[in-house]
Amino acid sequence: MDSVFQEIQQRGTFLFPFQHYEMNNETGHLFVSAHWHREIEVICQIQGTTMLTVEGTDYNLLPGDICFINSGLIHQFKSEDSQSLYYAYVFPLDSLGFAREDYSQAFYLKPLIQGTLLFPTSIPRQSACRNSISSCILTLIEKNKQQCPGYQLYTKAMLYQIISCLYEEHMLVPQQKTVQSSGFDKSILSYLEDHYSEKLYLNEIAGFFHMSPKYFCRYFKKHFGKTLMEYMNYLRIEKACGMLLSTQKPVLEIALMSGFSNISYFNKCFKKLTGITPKAFRAMHRS
Q1: What is the CATH number of the domain that holds 117?
Q2: Per the structure, how many domains does the chain have?
Q3: Based on the domain organization, do 157 and 211 belong to the same domain?
C-alpha cells in the first residue's frame, strides 16, 4: 500500500532523470499535500516564507534557507505568503555514481547511495558552507532552465560540490540519528489517496486501521499537523486543481470527481485554499 501514496513521475528524461521546480505562490495560498519519493529533494527559499513539514516536524523557511529531503520521508509544503518563492531540485542519488569504482565512489558517494549517511534536513543559517551551497543550487537551476550544451555535466558538478561542502563541514548524518518515515503513516496517506473521491466516514477509516475514532483523530493531528477534514479538503482541492488544468471537464463534474458532493461547499473550500474561484484559477493558469 505504501507505493500508492508514493509520488511516481518521470523526472527529466530517461538519460537525465533530474528535475527542477519553481514554486511561486501567486495566489497566496500554496499547498503541496503530504507525499514521498525515492529521490533526494533540495529546497532553496528565494523570497517570502514557506512552511515545510518533514515527518511531522515544521521548518519555517525564510529567504536563503536550504533544506534537504531524504529518500522516503513524508513531507508537505504550505504558504499563505503571496511573495513566497522557492526552488526545488529533485534527483536520484544513484545517478551520481560512477561506472568505475574509485575513491570518491567508495568513500563518499556509496554511503549516501546506500543510505548509511543522509543529508541534513536543514542547513544552519550560521553555517560556513551555506552561501556556497546556495550558490550551487541557484547555478544548477539556472543551467537547467537554459539547457545549454553540457548543462547535464554542469548539474552533476554542482551536486558533487554540494556533497563535498557537506562532507567538509561534517554535516552528513548517520542513518540511525534520523527519523525514518513510519510505514503505518504511509499506509494512512495511501488509504486517503485511494479513497479521496469517495464519501468518507471517520468510523470506517478508524476501523480500517483498528483504532477508535477519537484515538485516530488525535493520532492524525499529531502526525500530520492537520485534522482529517482539513487534510482531506487540501488533498481534494489539490486534485481538483490538477483536473482544472489538464481537462476540459465542467467545474461541477470536477467537484464530484474530487470527492465533494456539494458544489457550494467545493467553491467555498477552493476559494479559501487558493484565494480564487475554480473558474478564475483555470483562466489564470491557461492565459
Answers
A1: 2.60.120.280
A2: 2
A3: no
Residue with cell 487534510: 231
Query: Is residue 9 very low, low, confident or very high in pLDDT (cuts 50, 70, 90)?
Result: low
Q: Which residue has the cell 480564487?
A: 276
- Give the CATH number of the domain where residue 232 resides: 1.10.10.60
Residue with cell 528524461: 13
Q: Burial letters for 44-59: b for 16+ Cβ neighbours within 10 Å, e otherwise?
A: bbbebbbbbbbbbeeb
Give the contacts of 220 (CB within 8 A, at least 6 positions apart): 188, 226, 227, 228, 231
Tell how far CA 238 is from the center of its chain.
Answer: 13
pLDDT at 26 over 90: no
The pTM score is 0.78
What would the grid cell of residue 131 be?
552561501
Q: Is residue 183 part of a domain?
A: no
Q: Are 232 and 188 in contact (CB under 8 A)?
A: no
Burial of residue 75 (number of CB atoms within 10 Å: 0-12, 13-18, 19+): buried
pLDDT digits (tens, 9 = 90+) for 40-74: 999 999 999 999 999 889 999 999 999 999 999 99
Cα angle, residue 50 at apex, residues 121 and 18 outer, rounded to 5°: 60
